[in-house]
Amino acid sequence: MKRFDNQRETDSASVILPVTAIGHADVTSVVPALTASAASSVVLAGKSAALQFPANNTKFLSSTPLKRRKRGRCMSRRRGQTGSISKMGNWWTVRYWIDVPGQEQRVYKREKICPTFGPGRLTASERKRRAKGIIEASGADKAETLQTSIATVRSTTFREQSETWLRAVAKRDVAPSTFSDWERCLDTWILPTSINGMPFGDLPLASIKRTVTQELVDQMVAGGLSPKTISNYFQVVRMVFSSCVDEDGQELYPRNWKKMGIIVPKVNKKEQRRPCFTREVMNHLANSLTIKPKMRMLFILCGATGLRIGEALGIRIDKILDNGARIIIDEKAWRGEIHDYLKTDNGEREVDLPENVARLLVESIGDREKGLLFCTRKGTQLSQSNILRRHLHPALKEVGFEKAGNHAFRRYRNTFLRNYTSCPESVRTFWLGWSEEGMSGLYDKIKTDVAFRKEVSNTCGVGFEVPASLIAIEPIAPKPEGAEVAVSA
Question: Which domains does the chain have, with CATH numbers?
Answer without folding.
Answer: 2-48 (no CATH), 90-152 (no CATH), 155-260 (1.10.150), 279-460 (1.10.443.10)
